[in-house]
Backbone:
């Protein structure tokens, strides 16, 4: 513990220098934390807005235009999977909405609303009205509803070419914040679509969301193996390679910045400690003359590095979290929401702090080695 | 060990500095220093006396020859063994006090004990206070090292050298930076310690008056022993 005591005294004696280097390490770590939570938040936002309210893994019949008849069995099997967040079914068809003289192309999605709500947040996205409670009731996308100048509880016809036609009542309007969906989708109960398409108890597809979105590919593969070749399983990762490469480019550029920040922290500490060895060479020389071992002489500087690292890490975590919080408080959009929702990941914060501590310890290796090599006689002879 | 035994034996010591331009500083030095004796070394600047003292103190290595400390050859000792021997047997006093300015006078004095990994027991603490009293620096015990007068600093350095109760104290112009009153005082103290604790002293000095108070006076000239006088009867 003796070298630790000396290290503490050395740091305390040159308090100004110590505080400066602690601040230097702290700023380095705080940038890592801020950058990490910013990039994390951006990615989470991007992923959520892209695939948060849609199917991440989809099961269809391998034969085009065919349905899935044993969907209840498959849903049952899927329920035993721990990695899945929710699964829902839909029976879909393209057709026309006929309101008097007006005709609009639409895409009708037959849902079990209770299950579909978990994926599409239908209840939360309802602008007005309510979720259909009867088989003949439907919801319309916001833009579609507006373009037809309809009112709630109005009746109109849905026509599926070559299949059939039926009259429905609009009971609600949904806004999925995507123009193509808002102007095209009509949401109906499954029980409306099955007779309209002239089919029995079948669905077009099973839609799944997973707990860890980046595991979707592996889980999709597992599901494909278990349902067999009769079915075709797709996942969002295969369908969004552009998004994935953008995300990975973002991650690697953030990693590069963090690596360079770490290197500059290491260089900063190493140079300050190297100067400190020269400043303290008299002290080290006399300690050696009194019998301090070379290993203890190097321990002094290792401890200095470690102590600076720990103090810098603490300072960095406080600064980083403070910087991030002030960013979310002061950088706001016109609606008063933060520009980016930062993602605080305790593991990332802890990692940044640990990197700072380890980097400081590594930075002190050269000064420590110098200190152990310091010749007593050189110090004594040169005064 | 009786007073007749040699605590230091210097055998055929040569010292050459430099590799491409060689400068020989010491030429075949042979000396025996008796236990409990107070020996002064005199000589002009550059005569090699400091080099000899540093070699005796195992801080520097001879190019040839061997140093025996308490009968043990140091020639083939490992670094760790030499460090241990030095911390247990030898105390140093330099012209510059070399106190650690980060520590107080008291902390500087007990430093050798900490280096030896000893716990600071009441006995150790008491010894430190006893030495401080002997040196007349008790009133500055809590002062940082650089907040004392030159004389106080040097006396603190002497107390530190004596703390681990070394058999040998090597002093290189310990009063070189002090005025004549302080010089006189410090030598009286060293002599007192020599008598009280039976510590062997090897002291380099420029001051002939001081040198003459030693039991033995050795003069080094151009790296050789020029004169070796037994002065114990005069003192």
Residues:
């Amino acid at each position: 513990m003796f070298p630790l005591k000396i290290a503490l005294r050395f740091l305390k004696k040159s308090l100004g220098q110590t505080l400066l280097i602690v601040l230097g390490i702290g700023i380095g770590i705080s940038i890592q934390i801020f950058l990490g939570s910013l990039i994390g938040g951006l990615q989470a936002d991007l992923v959520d807005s892209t695939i948060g309210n849609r199917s991440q893994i989809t099961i269809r019949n391998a034969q085009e235009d065919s349905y899935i008849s044993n969907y209840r069995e498959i849903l049952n099997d899927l329920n035993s999977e721990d990695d899945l967040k929710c699964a829902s079914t839909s029976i879909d068809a393209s057709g026309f909405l006929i309101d008097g003289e007006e005709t609009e192309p639409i895409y009708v999605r037959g849902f079990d609303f209770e299950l579909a709500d978990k994926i599409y947040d239908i209840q939360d996205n309802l602008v007005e009205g309510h979720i259909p409670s009867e088989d003949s009731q439907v919801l319309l996308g916001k833009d579609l509803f507006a373009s037809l100048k309809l009112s709630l509880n109005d009746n109109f016809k849905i026509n599926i070419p070559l299949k059939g036609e039926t009259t429905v009542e609009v009971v609600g309007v949904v806004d999925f914040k995507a123009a193509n969906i808002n102007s095209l989708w009509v949401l109906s109960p499954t029980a409306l679509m099955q007779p309209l398409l002239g089919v029995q108890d079948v669905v077009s597809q099973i839609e799944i969301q997973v707990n860890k979105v980046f595991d979707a590919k592996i889980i999709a593969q597992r599901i494909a193996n278990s349902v067999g070749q009769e079915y075709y399983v797709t996942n969002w990762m295969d369908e969004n390679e552009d998004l994935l490469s953008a995300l990975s480019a973002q991650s690697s550029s953030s990693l590069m910045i963090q690596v360079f920040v770490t290197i500059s922290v290491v260089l900063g500490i190493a140079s300050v400690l190297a100067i400190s060895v020269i400043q303290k060479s008299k002290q080290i020389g006399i300690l050696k003359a009194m019998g301090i071992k070379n290993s203890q002489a190097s321990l002094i500087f290792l401890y200095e590095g470690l102590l600076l690292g720990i103090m810098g890490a603490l300072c960095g975590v406080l600064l980083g979290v403070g910087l991030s919080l002030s960013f979310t408080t002061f950088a706001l959009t016109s609606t008063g929401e933060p520009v980016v929702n930062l993602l605080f990941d305790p593991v990332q914060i802890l990692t940044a702090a640990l990197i700072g501590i380890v980097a400081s310890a590594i930075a002190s290796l050269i000064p420590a080695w110098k200190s152990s090599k310091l010749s007593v006689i050189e110090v004594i002879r040169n005064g | 060990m009786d007073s007749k035994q040699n605590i230091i034996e210097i055998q055929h010591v040569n010292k050459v500095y430099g590799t491409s331009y060689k400068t020989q500083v010491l030429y075949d030095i042979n000396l025996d220093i008796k236990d409990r004796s107070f020996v002064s070394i005199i000589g002009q600047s550059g005569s090699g006396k400091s080099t000899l003292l540093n070699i005796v103190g195992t801080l520097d290595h001879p190019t040839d020859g061997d140093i025996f400390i308490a009968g043990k050859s140091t020639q083939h000792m490992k670094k760790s063994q030499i460090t241990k021997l030095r911390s247990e047997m030898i105390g140093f006093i330099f012209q510059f006090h070399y106190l650690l300015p980060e520590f107080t006078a008291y902390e500087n004095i007990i430093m050798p004990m900490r280096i030896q990994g000893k716990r600071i027991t009441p006995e150790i603490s008491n010894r430190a206070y006893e030495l401080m009293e002997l040196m007349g620096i008790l009133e500055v015990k809590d002062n940082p090292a650089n907040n004392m007068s030159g004389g106080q600093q040097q006396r603190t350095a002497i107390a530190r050298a004596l703390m681990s109760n070394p058999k040998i104290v090597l002093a290189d112009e310990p009063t070189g930076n002090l005025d004549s009153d302080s010089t006189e005082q410090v030598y009286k103290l060293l002599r007192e310690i020599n008598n009280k604790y039976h510590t062997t002293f090897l002291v380099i000095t420029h001051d002939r008056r001081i040198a003459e108070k030693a039991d033995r006076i050795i003069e080094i000239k151009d790296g050789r022993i020029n004169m070796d006088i037994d002065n114990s009867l005069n003192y």
Q: What stands out?
A: Chain A touches chain B at residues 2, 5-6, 9-10, 12-13, 282-283, 285-294, 296, 376-377, 380-381, 383 (CB under 8 Å). The beta strands of chain A are 57-61, 84-99, 102-111, 126-129, 137-141, 155-160, 164-174, 185-189, 205-210, 231-235.
